[in-house]
Amino acid sequence: MKKLVVMAVLSAGMLAGGLAYAQEDAVDGLAPAAGIESTTGGGQQKQKAAGFWDVVISGGWLSVLLWLALFGCGAAAVYFIVDSSVLIRPQKVMPQSLVANVKAAMGEGDVMKALKVCEVEPGPMANILTAGFSHVEEGFDVIQESISAAADLETERIMQKLTWISVCSNLSPMLGLLGTVQGMIMCFKSLATGAPDVGALALAISQALWTTAAGLSIAIPAITFYYSIRNNANRLILRMQAITMELIKDLRNIEIVND
C-alpha cells in the first residue's frame, strides 16, 4: 500500500508536469507558424506566441472557473487516493495486535477483557467485535445480528471513501468536455465574423483540446487507482468478516467473567 500511495503522488506530479511541458513544447513548436505579422510605423513586428495562461483566460471568467475546477478535481483525486491508500490497510482495519489480544481473551473465556481490548484499539474490526460482545448476554443469534449490522456499517464507511475517487474520475472528463464545447463555440464565433483572427482562432482550439487533455489526465489515473483500492478493500472486508466469525464462534457457551 505504501507503493500505491507513492504511485498516486508521483502520477499526479508527472501528469501535471508532463501537461505543462507538452503545452510549452507545443507552443514553442508552433510559434513560427502561429506568429502574426502586423505593420506598425512602417516596420513589421511579430506577436509573441500564446502561452498557457493565454489559453486559460482566452474564454473569460468561465474559462478561468473551468480550469480552477479541473485543478481542484485533480487535487481532490490525489487527496482521496492517498487518504484511502493509507486508511484501507490491514494494519488500520484489523490490527494484528487486536486479533491476538482478543483471541487470548476469548481463550481465557473473558468476554469483558476482550471488550476492553477493542476499546483500547478502535477501528472497523474493533467496532464490529464490540457490537457482538455488547450483546453477549442476549444469545448467540442476537450477537450474530449485531455483528452483521456493524459489519455492513463499517463496509459502507470504507466504500464511501472510495466513492469520492470515482466521483473525481467521472467529473474530470465532463469538465474537459465542457471546455471542448466552450472552445468550439469560441472558434465558430470567430469564424462567423468574416475574416477570422488567427490568434483568437488558435486560442479557441487550444482551449478545446487542452481542457479535454487535462480532464482525461485526471480521469485515467483516478479510475485505475479506484478499482485497485476497491478490490483491495473487498479482500480486506471478506478477511475481516472471516476472522470475526472465527473469534465469536466460542460465544455460544461462553460465561461472563466480572471483575
Explain the overall architecture.
This protein is mainly alpha-helical and 259 residues long. It has one domain (2-28, 50-252). Helices cover 80% and strands 3% of the residues. The protein has helices at residues 2-34, 52-57, 61-87, 90-93, 96-107, 111-120, 124-133, 140-192, 198-248; strands spanning 37-40, 43-46. It has a two-stranded antiparallel ribbon with strand order 1-2. Strand 1 (37-40) and strand 2 form a beta hairpin. Helix 6 runs antiparallel to helix 7. The longest helix is centred in the middle third of the chain and has 53 residues, at 140-192.
Please report which band the strand proportion falls in: under 5%, 5-15%, 15-25%, 25-35%, 35-45% or over 45%. under 5%
Indicate the structural class.
mainly alpha
> Based on CA inertia axes, which overall geometry fits?
rod-shaped
* Low-confidence runs of at least 5 consecutive residues: 1-46
Helix content: over 70%
Reading side by side through the largest sheet, how are the strands ordered? 1-2
Kindly provide the radius of gyration, computed on alpha-carbon positions and rounded to a whole number of angstroms: 29 Å
How many beta-strand segments? 2
Order of secondary-structure elements: HEEHHHHHHHH
Largest sheet: 2 strands, antiparallel
Gap between N and C termini, in Å? 41 Å
Considering the chains and any ligands shown, give keywords for the structure.
single chain; 259 residues; mainly alpha; 3% strand; disordered N terminus
